[in-house]
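User: Can you help me understand a structure? I only have the sequence.
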Amino acid sequence: MAKGFLLVLSGPSGSGKGTVSQALMQSRDDIVFSISATTRNPRATEVDGENYFFYDKDVFMDMVEKGEFIEHAFVHTNYYGTPKKFVFDQIEKGEIVLLEIDVQGALQIKKNYKEAVFIFLLPPTMDELRNRIVKRGTETEEDIDTRFSNAFKELDFVGEYDFFVVNDKVDAAVADIEAIIHSEKLRVKRHNGIKELVTRKGGSKNE
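Assistant: Let's start by predicting it. Here is the structure, written out as tokens:
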């Protein structure tokens, strides 16, 4: 069985990461969404181990000291992190673990775990990016300006990623990511016993 891998998806606010991630997971049965850990309290509808792994601060910081996160950060008043165990267990099962994360978190992962595949999601134009943020109707004009300014700064880090995908239409963006996944699944390093696969009686090259 081929090993899976960690697929890291980043992009500025308004690039459509959440929409593309959801569509990608609906189109494939070999993708597992990465579950983050947090020290914040669960909301009424959230389930531990499904939406997040909920830990108190002492447990979380102990995990940090033991190196049990691929990345972690302090956001507002709580800690968030990506547990190694969940990710690596899924990879060993042959799953693709999809992690939607900001640029800073992605760079931390790249430093700590070089086997991940990094994709940067781009808008078709920066004008379209601003239009998408405005159309949400959830941010003030000041917030919109801040997100737009941050988006330009994040573009400086595209060169740190393996691939870029332009999200003009969601279906096309998903198709591009699926092409990347297909290529990555054919990497020799993700397979054991390739010779046996093609030489054993009844073996299929697509198996």
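Now, to help you interpret it: The first helix runs from residue 17 to 27. Residues 5-34+95-199 form a domain with the Rossmann fold fold (CATH 3.40.50.300). Let me know which part you'd like to focus on.
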